[in-house]
Amino acid sequence: MNRKKELHIGLIGCGFMGRTHSNAYRRVWNFFPELAYIPVLKAVCSRSENKVKTFADQWGYESTETDWKKVIARDDIDAVDICVPNDMHAAIAVAAAEAGKMVLCEKPLARNLAEALRMVEAVEKAGVSNTVWYNYRRIPAVSLAKQIIDSGKLGKIFHYRANFLQDWTISADLPQGGEGLWRMDADVAGSGVTGDLLAHCIDTAIWLNGGIKDVSAVTETFVKERLHQLTGKAQKVGIDDACIFHCHFKNGSLGLFESTRYARGHKALYTFEINGAEASIRWDLHDLNRLEYFDHADDSRVRGWRSIHVTDGDQPYMDKWWVPGLGIGYEHSFVHQVADFLKGLEAGTGCSPTFREAFETQQVCEAVLDSAASRSWKDTGA
Amino acid sequence: MNRKKELHIGLIGCGFMGRTHSNAYRRVWNFFPELAYIPVLKAVCSRSENKVKTFADQWGYESTETDWKKVIARDDIDAVDICVPNDMHAAIAVAAAEAGKMVLCEKPLARNLAEALRMVEAVEKAGVSNTVWYNYRRIPAVSLAKQIIDSGKLGKIFHYRANFLQDWTISADLPQGGEGLWRMDADVAGSGVTGDLLAHCIDTAIWLNGGIKDVSAVTETFVKERLHQLTGKAQKVGIDDACIFHCHFKNGSLGLFESTRYARGHKALYTFEINGAEASIRWDLHDLNRLEYFDHADDSRVRGWRSIHVTDGDQPYMDKWWVPGLGIGYEHSFVHQVADFLKGLEAGTGCSPTFREAFETQQVCEAVLDSAASRSWKDTGA
Amino acid sequence: MNRKKELHIGLIGCGFMGRTHSNAYRRVWNFFPELAYIPVLKAVCSRSENKVKTFADQWGYESTETDWKKVIARDDIDAVDICVPNDMHAAIAVAAAEAGKMVLCEKPLARNLAEALRMVEAVEKAGVSNTVWYNYRRIPAVSLAKQIIDSGKLGKIFHYRANFLQDWTISADLPQGGEGLWRMDADVAGSGVTGDLLAHCIDTAIWLNGGIKDVSAVTETFVKERLHQLTGKAQKVGIDDACIFHCHFKNGSLGLFESTRYARGHKALYTFEINGAEASIRWDLHDLNRLEYFDHADDSRVRGWRSIHVTDGDQPYMDKWWVPGLGIGYEHSFVHQVADFLKGLEAGTGCSPTFREAFETQQVCEAVLDSAASRSWKDTGA
Amino acid sequence: MNRKKELHIGLIGCGFMGRTHSNAYRRVWNFFPELAYIPVLKAVCSRSENKVKTFADQWGYESTETDWKKVIARDDIDAVDICVPNDMHAAIAVAAAEAGKMVLCEKPLARNLAEALRMVEAVEKAGVSNTVWYNYRRIPAVSLAKQIIDSGKLGKIFHYRANFLQDWTISADLPQGGEGLWRMDADVAGSGVTGDLLAHCIDTAIWLNGGIKDVSAVTETFVKERLHQLTGKAQKVGIDDACIFHCHFKNGSLGLFESTRYARGHKALYTFEINGAEASIRWDLHDLNRLEYFDHADDSRVRGWRSIHVTDGDQPYMDKWWVPGLGIGYEHSFVHQVADFLKGLEAGTGCSPTFREAFETQQVCEAVLDSAASRSWKDTGA
Fold this sequence. Notes:
The structure is a homotetramer of 382-residue chains.
Chain A: E1 5-12, H1 16-31, E2 37-45, H2 49-59, E3 63-65, H3 68-73, E4 79-82, H4 89-98, E5 102-105, H5 113-126, E6 130-132, H6 140-150, E7 157-165, H7 186-189, H8 193-209, E8 212-220, E9 225-227, E10 234-236, E11 242-249, E12 254-260, E13 269-276, E14 279-284, E15 290-295, E16 305-309, H9 332-347, H10 355-374, E17 378-379
Helix pairs in contact in A: 1-9, 4-5, 5-10, 8-10
């Protein structure tokens, strides 16, 4: 073990994302033994002392903090991982960068473009490694899609469409804000499905199909008022429950995006499809080990969408896991991102998406919200 | 046979749609023997004498004409069926109505709203039976969707989405206009995918989910110039190759529509999905005998999308065909429409969609094209 | 129309199969106008005068008979089509052949091997055209499977598996025998699912994968006693409710077949799959327009089962129908068989499967029932 | 951490299964923090010193051994986990039991019934905790199937069918025996697909549908001779490449099982289906998060197979992982088995399947091989 260089992690936040990241740090060296770096779970931080102790115990963190500034102040921390609600991303990231720490930040980068810009400038000025957890890029089937697209097999691209459909906020009795529900509080989250779900779709889209030029959007808040957990009062709901937009990509293709938390029957249906002159690809998070691929070059009589079970050793990341046919799950995308972050550290190449790259996604989100508010097309500025 | 009242049909046009209608007329009395009316194939008309003779021979028409006005002038014709390119719909329909003939018109009703209005006014003034061949309503799975929605099982509706994706015009070498390709000539067709494909999606949507209030659209013409078959010259392409729009339905739900002829891998992928608070439904033309249905009332541990094979006798129209499990095809939707037209004649109830109802679809199409042209939201006026 | 040679049909039986055949005769000239022969519906026969009159009226038969011998005796009948219960196949077919009529017989050829042999000998001695309605061969997707296999793309074959699962006889309250239920009466049907459903699977299997050498089977009758509709008494059920067998094909591959009417959830799930060294194919009647195809020669990273929507003009029979993406149904397989019968008449090549070919299926069925009864392997004798 | 009782694991074998088990031990306390016991990776053993050192390093074992007897002799080992080829299961398990160690053994329990019996007797005589790694029971969708069946929702069972299809040994150039290929050497493995793959299907079947009475089987060895890696010579292949059997379950239902390594296109297609009078269930390892369920009690017009995405907190094990819609993978089944083993230890209830329970699967395997060899039905003796 002493051959490995240690990377000392300070995790801030121990909710759902704290778990996925912790799991990734713990697993990476079992499956990527060739890496020069190994993450060491030095500290975890949360305002609740009880909660953070339990979390540290369960996940094997060496120490706990209840003030994030203490994590940043510690000399034994190399990298700060931000897993707190969106309203704290900017402050923590900027402070961490200024303290010379590497920064790994949950998505979306920030609540809005202004915050995001400060964060980008901070990490770039400090020259620290940085990445944003747009984890879906590293589902093997999605990575394979990227490989196919980069190979040029699709030809000229005409269409890109994606949606992210959920159904967990349909009940009008669901409160907003506070523990477990900060995603429904616009002040904390910045936006609703746009920042939470569409941001994923946009990140993947830009990665696979290039930049987005302009957008035309509509948003809707179906339930106008909800009890706020913190105030105990019924308050106006500020987030977008649903958001749809179409757009022009810079490569001339048309884009179409939809997200909602009111699509009964869909738990986490993230799908995308890209249509080129020569081939098309589609993917669905619900069946994440599969990639569908249509190749017009196939003999016409036996041409059809191929259902590729992406579990073979020659497919992205899959030499690390089991044997053909045996699928992996959602959590593995985070393990892959940690592995790539460590690899980037070793090679000095960074780990995509960086804050700068995630800023472009933020530009699109901002344009989408602006477009919806103004009922007009908006340039993304990207 | 002499118990049946004869309905003398004069078919104008003998292309693809002429075949589907002729087949429907010929089959209806084998499968709906209880009907009081029986269609009799009195005359078929096409400018090409050769072609029309062959067609009449193949489909059993008693006589042929090469001038549609002659069909309308004939006393032995009760109903005129319009299967010619869109630019001739209005003239024929108006003349037929004025001559007191029933009119069955292929979709879209017309090239534009002005023409459509003249047609509606003509049939209503004449008081003649009329219908537009939006045949997909009468795929049994789609009819079942309507029944489920009408039963109230879905609860409040949040989302409606539909697309109609094809890939047959991707090659830049494909000419435009003329024999077999009039759909690519804006002067003849009125529009591209909007009138050809989205019109279907809109008709179904209005039927299932009520009226559409306003729309925001984008269109694209990917191949800007094509050889015109009639002029022999390369000419600017006037149609929309692709069209996307989002909208508000009058019931407060959000709509999302997309159509294209550049989605490699999709031959005729017409899908729709509707999400209500309590249940959701989706359908796909490529597997037209299936309806997918999600019922939130199911016990949560065993809840999932149901794949309903709509081939049982207690499902719409399926008591007329074979036995459970044995599917029917595309063409049957036309047989069902003829059956319903004859039933409506007998009962005096008409056959939906009437010209008036199809006019609403035309309003949406027009608003969509206007919105795309002006890059702004448009009210449909419906 | 006078260019066509008429083929005068005498249909015996007007139940479910009478309808599918009548429909096929009536439609063939609309879709296969190039054929030299045209079927003319001369006579239909059924013991019930009422029923046969209604049927003739609905389907356009020129005359009716109530005694099948009269049909055979008529000079104006060229071909006798047998759609009656299995116990009458042999008598009618032999008499028809002896009278010099062509014979088209519903499957299974007969109740048992002895009857089948008499039938084969009769048509061969008389030298009359003959065919058995194993219609599933002519579903376009199944015909495409045959083309792929014949092209050698599969390489050496290792496995063939098929099943035909239904669920309509689960209720113990369902009576046996008589109107609509003769398939449950062993005296009339000969056997249960073996002759009714497995016979289809075996016919397709032999066609696609060659002869079957020996079999080892098990049958089960889950409901031992049912009320007989004709006697009004509870009687022992003589048919097999379920049958499973494995076998050796002559080409060295292993076969596996299962059929039942007790598989809750399956209306008419006929599936087959064939695995070769280089490629595999599978098909499912419930989605009959699709063929799944796996080609090991595809690049390994993007290899997967292809879902082929068999609706293109270059796929079997599909140049006759609509346009790509628009599916056909169960009934079309019968239209195709009529077309092929007429084509075979014109070319003098016959129409597969002939009685002789169907006899081989009967040999396998008999061996299967013998094997089950004796709990031992049986050679088919084929 | 000191609240936990430690369970000291000695792992024997560090191949594919050594990895899956090690991963399970390492992850269980992150996801099942409520357990009283925590596994401690005390020692790992393999004949190759190099290999075992690397493995220990990668997975965090405290020490290594190269002689399995040393592991058993160590006082600091509580439980021996057997992950070596089948020919060593009996010797190690018996010795471990006699030394008073708990025993966790990879499946199949042994090469044959005689070995298996010795093992069962050894653990029962020693009174030590024991379990066999039939891990598929603990895929959440499979566990849910068990819950549904136990609830009685299926009613009387008529059919059970399962298959396990692979395609990795088709090439005749693949050698047999030795490193990575011992599964192809009958002396080491005991049998081919019967012990390797069908054993899984049989274990699940007995668990879900009760005991198997008698079987009728066929096996095939498609490639008769292969180069043996250890001898360097072409040798007769002793294993079954494929095995099919049908059977009677004790509850009167019919069973059908097939396994092969020659089904081109299938990497690890393990599927099962069970049909009851009232409901049916099916599952497919390739899409392991889904369970399909058909409930005849649903309203007939909207009845269909439900595709249940088994990722909700109220479904088996899924409260331990992520959020609805986010799937898990193959490896999690092992984590669940470790958790259940530890839970069983705490509660004194054992962990199914015990050696005794796995012995019943072995009885069926033995009867299957005997039946195939003798071409006759065999009672399982179970």
